[in-house]
């Protein structure tokens, strides 16, 4: 490999790594600010202007706390748990395309950790491994609550992974590729209305729901449900090991947001990208213009990511937690059949005249059914709960 | 040695080491974790053979789902205490003899066998990628592929049939 | 091809029929489904077809084996009327699993590609693991399922390894492709081929419970509910031998000198272990398990002495063995259920005491099936053994012939213990009742055994 490409790649990878950490750090701050805003409070405001140094103060506190390992714990696995959680969280951002490409001299280097033709599967593989960090840590703590939290996490992740995988098959059928970049470019080709969120509304809703469950975020944060399990899988953890778990959750949130943005919201594509990019290359020259256009695309992508991170927090502070059986019923009895239906309808739409918008049919039918059943139900009466 | 050969030997070494740990580990959890490591190494081998799709699916299905369920079950059983050895010496001897004979036979065969020379010109870089695999599965191997769904259905029906809680059974 | 599709679809239909409140329809529906599959099997009669890029090959031999398998399944299902009354039973699932397992059996019979063999073996085995454990509240049934599953999965793994090595040696999964490889490289076949043959044989011999891979058989047959034991010992064995015959007679006939010695030794071991151990059993069901091992030995003689007569002998022997085994298990089911002792169902020899006096029909059915299994003249079993022994004589392997005759005299001893118990011992006075349809099935099986015993030429020239 050419040395220049190697160096540029290393810089990109390091930048992705650094940005993941930075965003995760400030997500903790934003989370508290959003919570405060939702609850009409001020939130952290002591450390630095508007409390901006709060995450650094938190990290410092984490580092200087006593690093405690319970006597009956399995020591190496106890350490391995948070390490695994952090490792898998950081690995998944490697294949996400953050922008088009950077040009200089004769080089044309994509703004992406690594471009592989099975990018989507890579992310799925890494996400499916994420649960090991929780399971190993939960078991090694030798604590009933930790174990229960770990087991909940495992069953929840496995259940929702199925629907997660099924929900994007329709996208794969449209793009004909497993590469994330190819999926983004396929959306960019068709313009703003070609974004998968408009062609695959149902798939998007299912994917979003499952992404919440995979990140163990409210309303699916059963593994760390305080009212039932004390602290869940990290009950016994303290110091930076606990910090790693919490941090891994925020990194996962960032990666999920990036993945959702690239799969359903056109990635680094934004409306009128073609025209703007052409105008820039015409005025600034082929190289500089292209690079500036790439930068605008990357900025747009980060805008989408920030929106979804905000969305994650918004949901956390507005929606209550599910009960465990409700969680399982939703996953197995609603999301999986719906995603299979989505595959069938989308596939038949593509088969006949390449109709991309067939998925709307299900959404319309479902909405009509919901309205009908709602209007038929007697008003002011709660339907009896099934046992 | 070519760099790819170094990668191969290192990977093979780790694979064998973790596979041996699976069998020898006293604690079942360590055993399962070593098995997961083995699956990772096998995925590495798949990538070396240009079967990227297989590598990813191997990790998603085996390491990501099946082994999680293994771990899940073992955690529930909480097999921390080592079970007493229940096999007699005779059984052990017999196992050693049979396994040894099998291993010696295989070693002899693999040493003696003449593998045909590889023609690098014939190599198609797209072999093993998703598209080629899909075309293969849906054309030449369509029938076994479809009938494998009967196999999965049988396993599923069986699991539900055996696992279903009946009236009068204990609720955990 | 058509029966595979039909049975897969019918299995799913049966699962949906399980939603119905009434279970009455399930049994007749299953019987109709099996008959429909049987009818479509004969559509290819007299022709040789290759389906789906060398995946399946149907010829008359495959059709005959399929017929035997479907006939056995039909009789087993016809004897299953007790499910309807049983509160614990889940008949829809049982029948669906039986139909799916038939899909696997037909794949094993008519495969042309080793992948099909593997998938077929797995479908059949997985369904059998589940059915072995279908009596959920009985520890013996659970034990049977677990043992069968663990050992079966291991054997399948070995078989798959063998298939992989065969692919490595020949570069093809197709049975006839391996054959042409063996013929073109007659003096320099890759050693991997030999290793592959051995491992594939180990896997298959496990499935047909030949010694020394028979250790699971007694426990599994004993613990499994009786009806499914009958299914296991007929359908699985017939399909297994059909698969073995196809792979040995087509692919590996060119290296006959390599494997026949091993197979001959295993044959003798199987005959010895099966027959001698059966003598010491007190439970009829365990005796039948060892008897099924010994019959695997007789069938292996036909494969060891692979020749032109082998296929006819295998077909006839499998048919005779299946008929006799199913009627024996049919009688055992009725008797054991109605003569319970403190341990629940009584499956020992003493359950049959005085049976001939209280219910002459059941006594006669049992006697004929025992005579047929022992190979006494005027029954189908005699001609089956005769044909098998003829193949060995044709090939000139006389020592195996002498040994087999010796072992079948041992067999007479334990088969006659049942007859003696039924006709010469005093037993409980209360009569044994049999449902009408049940009776017809047993009578049909017995008549078929006798007809084949009197006129063995009926099946001649079909293959």
Query: Beta fraction of the residues of chain A?
Result: under 5%
Largest sheet of chain C: 2 strands, antiparallel
- Main beta-sheet strand count, sense and barrel state of chain A: 2 strands, antiparallel
Tally of discrete structural domains of chain A: 1
Q: What count of domains describes the coordinates of chain C?
A: 1
CA radius of gyration of chain C is: 21 Å
Which regions of chain C are unreliable across 5 or more consecutive residues at pLDDT < 50?
A: none
Helix content of chain A: 55-70%
Q: Which strand order spans the largest sheet of chain C, edge to edge or round the barrel? A: 1-2
Give the number of DSSP strands of chain A.
Answer: 2
Unreliable stretches of chain A: none
Shape of chain A: globular
Ends distance of chain C: 19 Å
Summing up helix and strand content along with how strands pair, one would put the structural category of chain C as mainly alpha
Average pLDDT of chain A works out at 84
Shape of chain C: globular
The tally of helices of chain C reads 19
Largest interface: B-C, 26 and 40 residues
Task: Provide a concise account of the structure shown.
The complex is a heterotrimer of chains A (387), B (172) and C (463). Chain B is mainly α and 172 residues long.
Describe the structure.
Chain C: Keywords: Cell membrane, Membrane, NAD, Quinone, Translocase, Transmembrane, Transmembrane helix, Transport. Chain C: Its main location: membrane. Chain C: Its EC number is 7.1.1.-. The complex is a heterotrimer of chains A (387), B (172) and C (463). With 387 residues, chain A is mainly alpha-helical. In chain A, 68% of the residues lie in helices and 4% in strands. Chain A has one domain (68-375). Chain A has 15 helices and two strands. In chain A, α2 (54-64) crosses α11 (239-264) and α9 packs antiparallel against α14 (324-351). Among the domains of chain B are: 1-81, Four Helix Bundle (Hemerythrin (Met), subunit A) (Up-down Bundle); 129-165. Helices cover 72% and strands 0% of the residues of chain B. The mean pLDDT of chain B is 84. The mean pLDDT of chain C is 89. The chains are: A mainly alpha (387), B mainly alpha (172), C mainly alpha (463). Chain B binds chain C through residues 105-106, 109, 112-114, 139-144, 147-148, 150-151, 153-155, 157-162, 166, and chain C through 4, 8, 11-12, 15, 51-53, 55-56, 88, 90, 93, 96-97, 100-101, 103-104, 107, 113, 115-116, 119-120, 122-123, 126-127, 129-130, 133-134, 136, 145, 190-192, 194-195.
């Amino acid at each position: 490999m050419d040395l220049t490409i190697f160096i540029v790649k290393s810089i990109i990878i390091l930048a992705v790594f650094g940005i993941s950490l930075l965003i995760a750090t400030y997500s903790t701050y934003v989370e508290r600010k959003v919570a405060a805003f939702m609850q009409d409070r001020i939130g952290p405001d002591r450390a630095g202007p508007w409390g901006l140094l709060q995450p650094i103060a938190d990290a410092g506190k984490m580092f200087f706390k006593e690093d405690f390992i319970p006597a009956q714990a399995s020591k190496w696995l106890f350490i391995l748990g948070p390490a695994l959680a952090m490792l898998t969280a950081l690995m998944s951002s490697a294949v996400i395309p953050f922008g088009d490409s950077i040009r200089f001299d004769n080089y044309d280097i994509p703004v992406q950790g690594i471009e592989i033709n099975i990018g989507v599967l890579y992310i799925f593989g890494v996400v499916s491994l994420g649960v090991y960090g929780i399971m190993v840590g939960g078991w090694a703590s030798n604590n009933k609550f930790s174990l229960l939290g770990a087991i909940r996490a495992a069953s929840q992740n496995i259940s929702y992974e199925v629907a997660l995988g099924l929900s994007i098959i329709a996208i794969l059928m449209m793009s004909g590729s497993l590469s994330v970049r190819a999926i983004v470019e396929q959306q960019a080709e068709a313009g703003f209305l070609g974004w998968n969120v408009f062609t695959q509304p149902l798939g998007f809703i299912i994917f979003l729901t499952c992404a919440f469950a995979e990140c163990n975020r409210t309303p699916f944060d059963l593994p760390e449900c305080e009212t039932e399990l004390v602290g869940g899988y990290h009950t016994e953890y303290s110091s930076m090991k606990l910090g790693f778990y919490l941090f891994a959750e925020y990194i996962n949130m960032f990666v999920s947001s990036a993945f959702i943005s690239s799969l359903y919201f056109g990635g680094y594509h934004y409306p009128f990208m073609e025209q703007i990019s052409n105008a820039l290359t015409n005025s600034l020259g082929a190289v500089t213009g292209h690079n500036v256009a790439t930068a605008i695309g990357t900025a747009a992508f980060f805008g989408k990511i920030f929106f979804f991170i905000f969305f994650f927090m918004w949901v956390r502070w507005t929606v209550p937690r599910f009960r465990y059986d409700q969680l399982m019923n939703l996953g197995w009895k609603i999301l999986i059949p719906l995603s299979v239906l989505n595959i069938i309808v989308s596939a038949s739409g593509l088969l006949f005249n390449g109709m991309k918008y067939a998925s709307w049919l299900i959404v319309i039918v479902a909405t009509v059914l919901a309205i009908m059943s709602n209007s038929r139900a007697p008003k002011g009466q709660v339907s009896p709960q099934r046992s | 040695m070519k760099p790819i050969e170094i990668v191969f030997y290192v990977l093979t070494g780790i694979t064998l080491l973790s596979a041996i740990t699976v069998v020898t580990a006293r604690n079942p959890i360590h055993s399962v974790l070593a098995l997961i490591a083995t699956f990772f190494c096998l995925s590495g081998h798949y990538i070396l053979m240009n079967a990227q799709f297989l590598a990813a699916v191997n990790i998603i299905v085996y390491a990501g789902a099946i082994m999680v369920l293994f771990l899940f079950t073992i955690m529930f059983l909480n097999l921390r205490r080592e079970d007493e050895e229940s096999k007699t010496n005779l059984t052990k001897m017999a196992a050693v003899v049979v396994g040894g004979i099998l291993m010696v036979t295989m070693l002899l065969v693999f040493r003696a066998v003449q593998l045909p020379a590889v023609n690098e010109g014939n190599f198609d870089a797209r072999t093993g990628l998703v598209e080629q695999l899909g075309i293969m599965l849906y054309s030449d191997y369509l029938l076994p592929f479809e009938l494998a769904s009967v196999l999965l259905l049988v396993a599923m029906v069986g699991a539900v049939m055996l696992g279903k809680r009946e009236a009068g059974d204990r609720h955990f | 091809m058509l029966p595979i599709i039909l049975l897969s679809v019918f299995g799913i239909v049966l699962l949906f029929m399980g939603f119905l409140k009434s279970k009455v329809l399930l049994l007749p529906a299953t019987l109709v489904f099996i008959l429909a599959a049987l009818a479509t099997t004969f559509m290819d009669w007299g022709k040789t077809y290759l389906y789906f890029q060398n995946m399946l090959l149907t010829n008359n031999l495959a059709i005959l084996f399929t017929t035997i398998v479907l006939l056995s399944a039909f009789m087993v299902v016809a004897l299953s009327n007790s499910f309807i009354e049983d509160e614990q039973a889940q008949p829809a699932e049982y029948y669906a699993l039986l139909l799916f397992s038939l899909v696997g059996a037909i794949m094993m019979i008519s495969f042309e590609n080793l992948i099909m063999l593997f998938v077929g073996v797995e479908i059949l085995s997985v369904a059998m693991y589940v059915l072995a454990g279908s009596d959920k509240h009985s520890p013996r049934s659970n034990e049977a399922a677990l043992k069968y599953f663990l050992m079966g999965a291991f054997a399948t793994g070995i078989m798959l390894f063998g298939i992989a090595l065969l692919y490595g040696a020949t570069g093809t999964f197709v049975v006839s492709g391996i054959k042409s490889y063996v013929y073109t490289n007659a003096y320099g076949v890759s050693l991997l081929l030999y290793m592959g043959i051995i491992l594939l044989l180990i896997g298959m011999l496990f499935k047909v419970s030949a010694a020394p891979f028979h250790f699971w058989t007694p426990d599994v047959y004993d613990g499994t509910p009786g009806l499914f034991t009958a299914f296991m010992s007929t359908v699985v064995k017939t399909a297994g031998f059909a698969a073995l015959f196809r792979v040995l007679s087509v692919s590996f006939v060119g290296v006959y000198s390599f494997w026949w010695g091993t197979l001959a030794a295993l044959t003798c071991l199987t005959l010895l272990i099966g027959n001698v151990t059966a003598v010491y059993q007190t439970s009829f069901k365990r005796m039948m398990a060892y008897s099924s091992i010994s019959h695997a030995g007789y069938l292996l003689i036909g494969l060891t002495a692979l020749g032109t007569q082998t296929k006819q002998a295998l077909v006839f022997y499998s048919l005779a063995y299946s008929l006799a085994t199913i009627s024996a298990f049919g009688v055992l089911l009725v008797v054991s259920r109605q003569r319970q002792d403190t341990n629940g169902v009584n499956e020992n020899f003493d359950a049959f005491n005085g049976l001939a006096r209280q219910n002459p029909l059941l006594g006669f059915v049992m006697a004929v099936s025992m005579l047929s299994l022992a190979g006494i003249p005027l029954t189908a079993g005699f001609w089956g053994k005769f044909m098998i022994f003829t193949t060995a004589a044709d090939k000139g392997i006389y020592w195996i012939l002498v040994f087999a005759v010796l072992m079948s005299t041992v067999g007479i001893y334990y088969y006659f213990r049942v007859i003696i118990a039924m006709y010469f011992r005093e037993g409980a006075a209360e009569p044994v009742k049999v449902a009408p349809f049940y009776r017809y099935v047993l009578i049909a099986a017995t008549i078929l055994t006798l007809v084949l015993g009197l006129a063995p030429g009926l099946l001649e020239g079909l293959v």
